[in-house]
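Standup notes
- HV: blocked on the assembly model, inputs below
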Amino acid sequence: MSVRVRFAPSPTGYLHVGGARTALFNWLFARRHGGKLVLRIEDTDEARNTEEARAAILDGLRWLGIDWDEGPEAGGDYGPYFQSQRKDIYDRYLAQLQAADLVYTEENGSVRFKFTRRPITVIDLVCGDVTFAATEEPDMTVRRPDGSYIFHFVNVVDDIEMGITHVIRGEDHLSNTWKHIDLFNAFGKSAPIYAHIPLILNPSGSKMSKRDEGSSIESYQQAGFLPAAVFNYLCLLGWTPRADSEKLDRDTLVSLFDAKEIHSSNARFDIGKCKWLNSQYLREMEPKALLDASRHQLSQAGLPIEKASHAAAILQSVKEKVSLLSEFPAWVHYFFRDDYPYEVEVVAKLRAKEDNSTLLEAAGKALEAVGDWTEDSIHAAIELAAKEQAVKPGALMPLLRGALSGQMRGPGVATMAHLLGKSAVLNRIHQAQNVI
RNA sequence: GACCCUGUCGUCUAAUUGGCUAAGACAUCCGACUUUCUAUCGGAUAACUGCGGGUUCGAAUCCCGCCAGGGUUGCCA
């Protein structure tokens, strides 16, 4: 029997990391076993569902590169994939239970399912077999007086109808799984195989919820994380791929994935490690891809891109120094405008010695004489100027860096000057002399 | 309260399934290098494996008890 798994979000908010990782593990499992991933929208709670939330979830999944084989926009033979459009199916299933005398209607019109009240064992790839004693809870409501159905009921019916073979979901569902199994049995079906994955905890140690800072996938997008890095990091929360490195691409992760190796203990989200992983992905990006990924960040910071190849080269020059796309503007803004500010340390550096102005003057002259404006010739000119002034290049470089960028950090000075262009460099040196 | 899951450096995890001095990554700190850096290189700190018993020649690993954290206990999903 071929594998069929599903991700079944409720469109009541944005896609959050917990949900994203659940989707991810389902995706990994489906791809690993050559099965199908079904996306099912659980929108039975009309009061809380919104169209924006639905769109945000799809966008979030797409951003991460999690594609589904059946569901909204993909279609499939088991639709509709919105629970709000499946009412007649639920009615039919309820009738089946009514015929078997397994449900009863209360005075207010709600319908309850009679629990079997026998011990029930959940077969779980992650937690092992977990047996729940015969329940003493009141019978479960499956339909509200207004005719709408409750999660437990529709979830089971859809899993049956959609031929779901494995249910991979958060561990918060484990305690209720016996109810689902009771229903599967009532319909004369055997339950799927479960894998309850550990929860992602927030920094304070409780379940990461939609209200927690940094919980929505969209926020990672905005903060300048790369989807591949977030994808990779999410895999590492609750699962350790058996590989030498922790930085692993999608195909490798798929080939390595084994649901039985998922941990059963909760994991705390470590934004720092996620950033580190991001920096690793960043530094191996080609200049063009780097620019495309950063366009939004640059325009938000008011930095105009006039020539793509030039902008790409600028980003390339500092990509190993940043870990998030959103850090780029602070590192490169002076390349895009002439009214860049001087950091206080730069002003102090420039004014530190009387003859700094003379040094800059000399550097300016030497650079002015450069014909072929390449990094090598620029570098040579600076070294020559230093030599003529009887100082080490190390005395001149920081001054030029400060003059050209207003900052104490950045790419190599020659690289910086090359990217800036000759006339801008000469102008900026003059301006710096005025500061002194 | 009851039930379920889980406890290894600050964080995420390893430990050939009972066998060397409990390993790595991130973070932190220190040093080196460089014209700079949140870069790079090198090093260091850091876990009585939650606690207490037991089994064993030997326990992170098996057993019992306790404690702690998380989850569930809806006419939310």
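- HV (later): unblocked. Chain A is about 45% helix and 10% strand. The longest strand of chain A covers residues 120-124.
- Next: hand off to the docking folks.
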